[in-house]
Amino acid sequence: MSRTSSRTAGRPHVVIVGAGFAGFQAARTLSRLTRRRVDITVLNPTDYFLYLPLLPQVAAGVLEPRRVTVSLTGSLRHVRLVLGEADGVDLDRRTVHYTGPEGESGELGYDRLVLAVGSVNKLLPVPGVAENAHGFRGLPEALYLRDHVTRQIELAAAAGDAETCRSRCTFVVVGAGYTGVEVAAHGQLFTQSLVRRQPLRAGIRPRWVLLDIAERVLPELDRRLSDTADRVLRRRGVEVRTGTSVKEATREGVLLDDGDSVPTRTLVWCVGVRPDPLVESVGKPLERGRLLVDPFLNVPEHPEVFACGDAAAVPDLAKPGQYTAMTAQHAWRQGKVAGTNVAASLGVGERRSYRHHDLGFTVDLGGVSGAANPLGVPLSGPLAGAVTRGYHLAAMPGNRVRVAADWLLDAALPRQGVQLGLVRSWNVPLESSSPELARVPAPEQTGHTDDKQAEKKTTEKKTSDKKTSDKSGDKNTETKNTEKKNQE
Ligand SMILES: Cc1cc2nc3c(=O)[nH]c(=O)nc-3n(C[C@H](O)[C@H](O)[C@H](O)COP(=O)(O)OP(=O)(O)OC[C@H]3O[C@@H](n4cnc5c(N)ncnc54)[C@H](O)[C@@H]3O)c2cc1C
To answer: pLDDT of 286-297, one tens digit each?
Structure first.
């Protein structure tokens, strides 16, 4: 095991765990404020920041996957990147234990710690879901979905009977929050473009079904955004079924709680997220699984530990008595406050509390459509679509030109309908505490040393994932996932 503490004698060492919206911004702010007077280490499983809001466009073939990533070493100046996943925090010894990408373990000593590990797919104890559904929280899942949808359309076009054709080109998305709505909206346009070049049997069209137990789509957002999204989706032919959920999932289809059954080979699970299980291991008070912090983002009784983003329960000073929502908007701004307050704790500048008034929300409905309410002004149609894309371009910390170039190409050329098959079903189990990484195959399947080491890590993680899922009442194991899905 390698152990690293302060890199330069005399300089404080700040460790930031997680380089998503909150962690990336914390590192950037801290680096700018302290100007090399502090050693900053970011621990993250990937070498990139992932711009999650554009993930549905990756799944629909609008954007190539690397477009929604921003290199950490290329964009965070004077920040050291350690590749790995934290699997334990010892608050007394002030150390973070982690596992590297090839299974090696290491330890980072810190003077200040920022926990910004985000969230993972939320599971519900519905029979068959863990084995047959896929989440939508990371790049591997988006790549998998793009290939899977393409393959289903290809198999549907070649199917010998109408029943198989119908089931293969039926896609069910569960959860009509912004993720589910965007996946369904983009997915429908994607399959439409695929069947243009690959016609299905007469009378059969791709069918997208969007389910939510709530009474409206985008239940957590302004009613007007919800109405716009609902209208656009229905106009395109997406079956929006509110007040409905899944009772059981099998390899051949889903049974809904209204008694209807939908034959399908595709179940996308977008019911929401839960905080990354790492925060539970910290052993401090939690609020719905999120680590409780004060308005300065400090973990109580530990002035040297900060937490922010989806993983932290941050009091919402703009809505007293509530905690801030799990959104990129909050995570990004909390990261900035965390960076500022870490610097202040080291004698640079003043600390401040986190307060943010909602600036509105944008929902990308694919094509030129969108639904948005910037500063509370409701917009729909192409204007909302333009505002949504403009917002994303402005918000991305890099890669903007490439993203804009892909959008231009997509407007001018037909979508590329090929599946590369690099991410298979068993690489992206729904039950995972690491949706940002594709799961590796068993070592006996490859014989490679790297895989053996990584598999050792996977086995350890499986145990912790299982513990978490057992707590949520879901007893399914990933072994079952792998067995059932090996064919795909
Ligand atoms: C498809 C999709 C679309 C979305 N669209 C929007 C939107 O339009 N607007 C909006 O406001 N929000 C949106 N969100 C929500 C938003 O992306 C999250 O709220 C935001 O990413 C939270 O930021 P974070 O920094 O807390 O977590 P993340 O951005 O998820 O970052 C967490 C980081 O921690 C790393 N990590 C995890 N575990 C460990 C570990 N054990 N050790 C080390 N590193 C670890 C991860 O790899 C990741 O880099 C969307 C989410 C999804 C999935």
So the answer is: 999 999 999 999
Most ligand 1 atoms within 8 A of CB, residue of 16, 21, 95 to mutate: 21
**pLDDT reading at 451 higher than 90:** no
Span 92-140, pLDDT tens digits: 999 999 999 999 999 999 999 999 999 999 888 999 999 999 999 999 9
Q: Where are the domains of the chain?
A: 2-45+84-121+274-345, 129-273+414-430+438-472
Is 69's C-beta closer than 6 angstroms to any atom of ligand 1?
A: no
Q: Is the CB of 19 under 6 A from ligand 1?
A: yes
Q: How sure is the predictor about 480, in pLDDT bands with cuts at 50, 70 and 90? A: very low
Q: What is the pLDDT of residue 473?
A: 36
Enter the pTM of the model: 0.91
| Span of 244-248, 366-370, 442-446 with lowest mean pLDDT | 442-446
Looking at residue 445, its pLDDT comes to 59
What 3 state SS string does the chain have? CEEECCCCCCCCEEEEECCCHHHHHHHHHHHHHHCCCCEEEEEECCCEEECHHHHHHHHCCCCCHHHHEEEHHHHCCCCEEEECEEEEEECCCCEEEEECCCCCEEEEECCEEEECCCEEECCCCCCCHHHHCECCCCHHHHHHHHHHHHHHHHHHHHCCCHHHHHHHCEEEEECCCHHHHHHHHHHHHHHHHHHHHCCCCCCCCCEEEEEECCCCCCCCCCHHHHHHHHHHHHHHCCEEEECCCEEEECCCEEEECCCCEEECCEEEECCCEEECCHHHHCCCCEECCEEECCCCCEECCEEEEEECHHHEECECCCCCCCECCCCHHHHHHHHHHHHHHHHHHCCCCCCCCCCCCCCCCEEECCCCCEEECHHHCCEEHHHHHHHHHHHHHHHCCCCHHHHHHHHHHHHHCCCCCCCCCCCCHHHCCCCCCCCCCCCCCCHHHHCCHHHHHHHHHHHHHHHHHHHHHHHCCCCCCHHHHHHHHCCC
User: Distance from the CA of 176 to the center of ligand 1, in angstroms?
Assistant: 18
Ligand 1 in contact with 24 (CB < 6 A)?
Answer: no
* 5-29 residue pLDDT tens: 446 668 999 999 999 999 999 999 9
* Cβ of residue 309 lying under 6 Å from some atom of ligand 1: yes
Pick the CATH number of 2-45+84-121+274-345 from 3.30.930.10, 3.40.50.2300, 3.40.50.300, 3.50.50.60: 3.50.50.60
Topology of 129-273+414-430+438-472 in CATH?
FAD/NAD(P)-binding domain (3.50.50)
